[in-house]
Batch of 3 targets.
Target 1
Amino acid sequence: MSTGTPRSVNRARQFSLVIGIVGLIVCAIGFTIDRRASCVSYLFGFLVWLGISLGCSGFLMIHHLTGGNWGYPVRRFFEAAIKTMAILAALFVPILFGLRQLYPWANEADLSMDRILQHKQAYMNAPGFITRMAIVFAVWIVGARLLTKWSAEQDATHSVEPTKKLRKLSGPGLVIYPLTVTFAYVDWVMSMEADWYSTIFPLLACVGQMLSALAFIIVLLAWYGPRTSLHEILSKESFHHLGNILLTFTMVWAYLAYAQLIVIWSGDLPHEIGWYLHRIAGGWRWIAVALLLFHFFGPFFLLLFRGTKRNPRILITIAAVIFLTHLLDVWWMVAPSLYQKGFYVSWVAPAALAGIGGIWFSSFLKQLETRPLIPLNDPRFAIAVST
């Protein structure tokens, strides 16, 4: 058990669970009133919190491969996040009841009028969708199980074998992660528009997941760390390292977003450009502007300065802005596929975000309390502390 868990954390876990239950009840009520709006809102909320868990898995595997000092204060946060994968799999099930509302390939009227959809029907169909969903979640759950199992074994022994296993898994794991996300996002997001495709989009989604996950963990570390035993290894240098990584992924996200835009726009193909045209129509364009300012330009220029990254308060503010802007990014990614004439946000969207998030965060905090917050018996950590 982690020592010194403050009462405020226990209260936060209980409060999150209540919020989650209430939010899901509101989603169920919304489904009876406006099915399409409720389905897209639920998908939005699900992708936000799934992205944090998957992003944390990516960073956890990078840390096991590199052994950088930046990872030790946040390793338990990453592990707690990936251990929620089974709950996320269960939370995905309601989406299966809204396939006809979300995807044209599941709608007989759209299918009968679109030759491209008919051509894709051999792949894009309900049984295939469910099968691929089950496979990717199985891969994510098994991977999370092995990463946390061997980490727990390392806590209990001075042998280096668990650490070696973690490194051996993390190498191929960093290949499997974007591969599984590709299958998932082609099904869950790209297929919302019948004629659109992009080879860059799944990788952009991965980087977005890791960027939002790191931003979320930085904010959480600043709240949780000083109250617990983590204060022993937490310093300005820790935040400086995390700030450097945040800057890196901010630039990578912007590069991939620009690469996707320039390739599609220069190709001048209607079925590709249409995806962007839907997202700059009416009020949607202001979200695009917000993403440009608060998901790249603002954080990029501020994170260039060493003093910004070494000041926890400033870094936390930047991370919070990135995370909140990422919420806009996910909504901008899914909603215009169904609401193409102008900006639209459903009253169910905040309920879905809070409902799924409340359940997820309550489980996350519960998992965080089950392990020592400082890694034990890790040979690389012992060297890092002694130097």
Target 2
Amino acid sequence: MREDPASAITSSTTLPKRVRVVRRAGESVTRAAKEYARNRRGGVLLELLLAMALFVGGAILVLGAMRSAIDGARRTDLRARAMDLAQSRLAELDAGLVAIGDFDGGVDDEEGSAGAHRDPELDVSLEILPIGAGDGVRLARATVRARDVGGDGGGTIITTIDRVIAAEDTRREGGSP
């Protein structure tokens, strides 16, 4: 028996169920699939471009965050080294490796110190300043600056540590036992 041409119209089961491609009597499944693919081609390209744009945008955000984190870690390391250098200079003063009388209220740069380490990025200076009217107590100020390219000594101040110390005359008279 022959089938009725109206009943020969069936739906393809090889394609996704949400899209129904109707094939006519005598039409092959591959031809219907090709027509479906041709209609879908623009949508796939659009989805691919959108996915690539999202990936590139996400990668840019992640790389920016990584750069900020690396810069922050470098600044933190520089501050920690600056604090160590300033404390070392004050410890040299406390240990007597640097004499207070050598300063006369002036500044000593790191090159003249006995145990100085040269840091390629930092310069440290030590100042002895009088406090008030009496000469018995002085202020020792260690200042650490970033080295500048010009070499004029005016680099950015990273840290400053102040410490109150006894003057040399006071140490000799009321010296510790």
Target 3
Amino acid sequence: MQNIKEKIQKGGLKATPQRIAVYSTLLKLGHASADMVGEEVKEVFPSLTVATIYNVLESFVRAGLVVRRFSSNNKMYFDVNTYEHAHLYDKDMNTYLDYDDPGLIRLVTEYLKSKEIPDFNLTDIDIQLIGTFKERQQHILKK
């Protein structure tokens, strides 16, 4: 709990009980939408609305504590892992799984650094592999 409080404060935010609950829930879920976080948080804060949770998550994005993920079902997910990594996205289940492959990231980064894309300023590289998990249950539990 203290680590979460310190992390929120290092992001320049006040560590309110609601923010701590939202961040703790996101740590538990990994990649989650505001609705998913709301379902988990409502036991502790039943009056906390999804809109408020979304605003808290957006404040975390601005503070660099989480990253947005856009899914093919037009839902925004938030990723608590801000280190450099790729994602596996199951398009049928709309779920994400972190995919740590430094070689892939290095290969793509080096390739794009050697190219100049006309009239485009590259600021970030986001690698997302899209498909479906062969054995869903195992991967859903790892989210």
